[in-house]
Write a structure and sequence with these properties.
Length: 336
């Protein structure tokens, strides 16, 4: 036939009712084997293709997941997304992506848009999502996963790493290389990840009976790291600081830029480490010692958990922490 076949055509060829055809296609109720076979043969002969939108409304399934994220331009968010997309496809889910650039108004629009598209679940990737957005998702009765470094895993069950342990391991690595006067540079923020990382640094220095040298800057930027060292270089040298642990690669790269501009040798004059294993950390010279976070794996496991919640109705009762890795490169010198 020249026109597209319909359910009516399938019904007539199979010799069954339209409701039987619908039940076979959507699997909503059991149908006898002989009628199921007749319908499937009619579908194959006619080349009938079900209307997926109508089918999703009947089954309450769209096989689509929504992703709300701040900005795909952030390298680590793109890595999260790769893991989500690849594993989502493995489970036969399509992905709808909505970038919000951190705007509360755009975040609200994102939730409304994804709800209108009948997404089965939402993964939120943000540096600090507004609580009202999470309540809005709940109002739409959409299961969700939150990947956000602001909140504690005790508040929202998530997939992440143990930030305290990761920074403790980096501090231990500095100490193992003979450094006893180690400064710590962090952004002044209430982020759970920032507070946890500082706790890891303090725990390790206190364990070895070393002094704590914690400094704060207003932004997590390369410029902030640069200006910090510009302002505090003499103070650090006066107190025999031999190493600086930065809570991010951005701050560490800023420290390195200042050293380069002022003929301060790394790691001879200062050993420096970062956190995050950003693309530039391996490209900059000398290459930056840092902590690698498994962003792809976090995204992949987050989507697996969400699929289990959707398909198997499993409860997600405990946050999952994945392993980090110390990337031992060229910015730390062994001094003993």
């Amino acid at each position: 036939m020249s026109r597209k076949p319909t359910m009516e055509d399938v019904k007539n060829l199979a010799g069954v009712s339209i409701s039987t055809v619908s039940r076979v296609i959507n699997g909503t109720r059991k149908v006898s084997p002989d009628k199921t076979e007749a319908v499937n043969k009619a579908i194959a002969k006619l080349g009938y293709k079900p209307n997926e939108l109508a089918r999703s409304l009947v089954m309450k399934r769209s096989n689509t997941l929504g992703i709300i994220l701040d900005d795909i331009g952030y390298s680590y968010m793109a890595q999260y997304l790769r893991g989500i997309d690849e594993i989502g496809k493995m489970y036969k889910y399509d992905i709808l992506l909505y970038s919000t650039f951190g705007s509360f108004e755009i975040q609200k629009k994102a939730v409304d848009f994804l709800s209108s598209k009948q997404v089965e679940g939402i993964i939120v990737i943000s540096e600090k999502i507004n609580n009202e957005i999470l309540y809005l998702i709940k109002e739409h009765d959409i299961p969700y996963m939150l990947l956000d470094t602001f909140y504690s895993p005790d508040e929202f069950k998530t997939v992440s790493i143990d930030f305290k342990k990761a920074m403790s391991d980096m501090t231990e690595y500095m100490i193992d290389n003979g450094h006893e006067n180690i400064a710590y540079l962090r952004e002044k923020t209430a982020f759970h990840s920032s507070e946890s990382k500082e706790s890891g640094y303090i725990e390790s220095t206190e364990k070895h009976k070393l002094d704590n040298w914690v400094f704060g800057v207003n932004e997590d930027t390369v410029e902030a790291g640069y200006k910090f060292l510009e302002k505090n270089y003499n103070k650090l040298k006066k107190n025999d600081i031999t190493a600086i642990i930065a809570e991010s690669d951005n701050l560490a790269v800023g420290l390195m830029h200042y050293c380069y501009d002022n003929n301060i040798n790394i790691p001879e004059d200062f050993s420096i480490s970062g956190f995050g294993n950003s693309d530039i950390s391996e490209l900059i010279k000398p290459s930056l010692t840092t902590v690698r976070l498994p962003y792809y794996d976090i995204g992949a496991i987050a989507v697996r958990v969400l699929v289990k919640i959707l398909r198997d109705k499993e409860e997600f009762n405990e946050s999952i922490n994945l392993n980090h890795e110390i990337m031992k490169r060229e910015t730390i010198k062994k001094i003993k």
